[in-house]
Amino acid sequence: MRGVGTDNASVMVSINNGVYQKLKQEVGNLVLIPCVCHSVQLAVSSTAEMLPRNVEFLISETYSWFSKSSSRQITYRFLFQAINDGADPLKIVQQSNTRWLSIEVAVSRILNQWLELQTHFETSRLQNKCYTAELLYGMYCDVINKLYLVFLKPYLEECQKVNKSFQSSTADPSKLLKDLILLIVGITRRIVVPGYRGDLLTVEVRKYKSPNIYLGHEVEILLTDLKKDNKLSPDNEKVFRNRCENFLFCLADELQRRLPRNVQVLQKVSLIAPEQCLRVVKESIIPLAKELGLTGNIITKIDFQWSKLTTVQWQNVTNTIEFWHEIASYKDASSQIPFQELSDFAMMILVLPWSNADVERAFSMLNNVKTSLRNRLKTNMVNSILTVRAGLKRVKKCCHDYTLPDDVPNQIGTMAAYRSVDQPSTSTAELEADDVDELLL
């Protein structure tokens, strides 16, 4: 066991009786990696309290207005097509109560359709004399609400981008933590005094607050235009700026607080990226090897192999996994593997669990397989179905284009289809009708 990924629950990471501490008693150099997807989600959710409640109300009520009414959707589509030369509108999505980052798509789509939505609610309040439509129309006419959404959009997009990187099964593991650090540094640099030379991952942002915080190009342009047209009073602008600044302070604090405790160790993982490995002058690999508990003899071999890595002309230098696979397969003139210890060390790093996304997907897949109508499925059958699905996904196939081996169709309808190589034959009486039907499917 090299590392353990956790969702940051106290039962997992508690310093006294947490699961990680129990495992560390047997595996002394076990690496703890709190799930970054959960951390970013919780950070943004906590920061959302800095914004006015009407912003979240506007988004949720806009979705509710269209979600259960086909006539409203059709009416809005005709209006949108008339304004946009026949183009169809994108659907307004729902904000999840447990996943506040889901609001990012909703914010983008509402901003892109702001004029059309405002016109739609104006028409609805006059024709239907609906109070909800009148309330929403008033909110869409309030420029402050639009300002908050314009301010939110880039920060939500950046957080969502990092979140999706950690959820991806094809992302480069040597660069994932760098994406998270760049997010924190980018936000912190906007709010601290220019020229600050300290560590932006640990700085107390309120202590080094910049006197003039830049809220973003679109926000500043919109504020300038509104002040020229006398649509925004100085008091309202001051309140708006204070709320946005508090949002940035809180977001930076939350992201810093939720960084992995061993971030200094995890940052060194980027050393195994091809662009780092193949530099003539590069950082030593010894500190990272010590952190992962390697012995002196192995570290000596790794250090020597690390220094001569640039002497070979490697082909796969864009993808980290393919790069180290090539190194592990490389043989010299005597058919020996000259980089054996170094490639084994790199593989040890590549298997670290940077995200719990695959586990979460397994939960969702299980809910799709074992539904209330199929609640009699036994554990073995559920495991078989999940294994088939995971296998098809791994080889990038679908049930529609997967080619069965020649002998498999001949076994359908016979007991051979239900026998395992390592298990004795099962009688027909031991198989339930539901299980047989599922296997045949």
From TrEMBL:
InterPro entries: HATC_C_dom, RNaseH-like_sf
Stretches assigned to the HAT C-terminal dimerisation domain: 321-389
Pfam families: Dimer_Tnp_hAT
Entry superkingdom: Eukaryota
Designated name of the protein: HAT C-terminal dimerisation domain-containing protein
Species per Swiss-Prot/TrEMBL record: Periplaneta americana (American cockroach)
Lineage: Eukaryota, Metazoa, Ecdysozoa, Arthropoda, Hexapoda
